Amino acid sequence: MKGRWPALFLAITVMMTTAACGSASNQTASEEDAIAVQVITIKKEPLNAEYSFSGTLKPEVEARISFQTSGEIKQTLVEAGDQVKAGDVLAVVDDENAQLQLKQAQNGVAQAEGQLSAAKAGVEAAEAQAKAAKAQLDTAEANFTAVEKGASAQKLAQTQNAVAMAQSAYDKFLADEERYSNLYSAGLISLDDYEKFQLQLKEAETSLENAKQSLSEITEGATAEQRKSAQAGVEQAKAGKSAAEAAVSQAKGAQAQAQAAYDQAVVQLKQVELSVSKTKLTAPIEGVILSKNAVVGQMAPAGAEAFVIGTVDTLKVPIAVPNDQAADWQPGQAITLEQNGSKRQGTVVRISPATNQGTGTLTVEVNVPNPKHDWIPGQVVRASRSFIGQEGIFVPAGAVISNGQEPYVFKHVNGKAVKTVVELGAHMSEDNRLSITSGLHEGDVVISVGAESLFDGDTITIVEDNAE
Fold first, then answer.
1. Beta-strand relationship, 35-41 and 460-465
2. Which of 89, 124, 158, 195 has its CA 20 to 30 Å from the CA of residue 316?
3. pTM score of the predicted model
4. What is the dihedral of CA 68, 69, 73, 75, to 10 degrees?
5. How far apart are CA 398 and CA 457, in angstroms?
6. Which pLDDT band holds residue 420 (cuts at 50, 70, 90)?
């Protein structure tokens, strides 16, 4: 047993020495595998940004004016640069044919108007005849009713009284006949007086006979011939009324046709008047003639652009702004515009509600006053604006990894690289640092240099601490 102790001690010593050497070797290897990086410590900073864009000056309002009718240009009344008012004549196209058509249309309206007046008069005359025919029918029907019903008690009494009066008159003349005869025979009255008396006697007798005849007709009723005659009068009156009503309908039809012809003539006249008006090209707005394409003597096809008019007291500048900066622009904001060393203050007036599909930008429209008209449409200007926002977090652009997935950074945590997904903001600092809206907090240590070669969980060593 005593012989084995030295050997056992030696074995244990060797094992311990080997283990110690192995531990030292592993530690050296681990330190050699650590990846050297640089880091920064996150802190909040003001979100300041300076925007600078270019744009082209345009008239605040622009109208491109084209000929609405074809023809030879006979006259131009303005030149490029002229100030015009709405309604001013700019150019005139040959209107000889249009004026001839206008005269014909005016004659057509006058003729149609005369025919319409005659048709209206015909309707009035036919309606008057129909009214008279209606009255005649009413009279005939009343007469027929009287014949059918016979005389009334009042009529009978009147006729009987007339007979009595006629009888009394006749009896008086008859009583005087002998006396007048004796006077004439004695030569006391003239032949003329005697003949007058005889005539009066005869008239009294006739009146008595007529009165008796009327009384006989009343008391005996109408004869068949009288009823037939009355019925014929009614039928004749009805036929007259029907004919009059047909005449009214015919006259109204003629009036309707005349009215239609008149309306058509008026429409034709308005169309020709419109054609005549189109031979004169007028300014739709007040402004400055920006360009002129109309030349006297040339044929102007309908739709050919002749002039461009614009308002230049105020100009506008469309600016293409990246979509991620849309929230920083609002109507009413002041914008500095510069053109050939001259600066002016502009104002944002509107922002397009949708992005341009080709560029992914938003159009921001800026208005700038131009009282002296010394800035000219078509010139390029620089537009700049400073943005001062709330505090935020910024990291160097090289610290953010984006390979088509969500962007991320690596934080330094206990000697390890920890992958951390972040959300980028719309702002970028003047030194090209990106803003972070989520994923990082103040005090976090982020790998600023060397992040592109790291994997989550890699051992890292800091070679230079850029934390400030």
1. parallel
2. 89
3. 0.47
4. -60
5. 19
6. very high
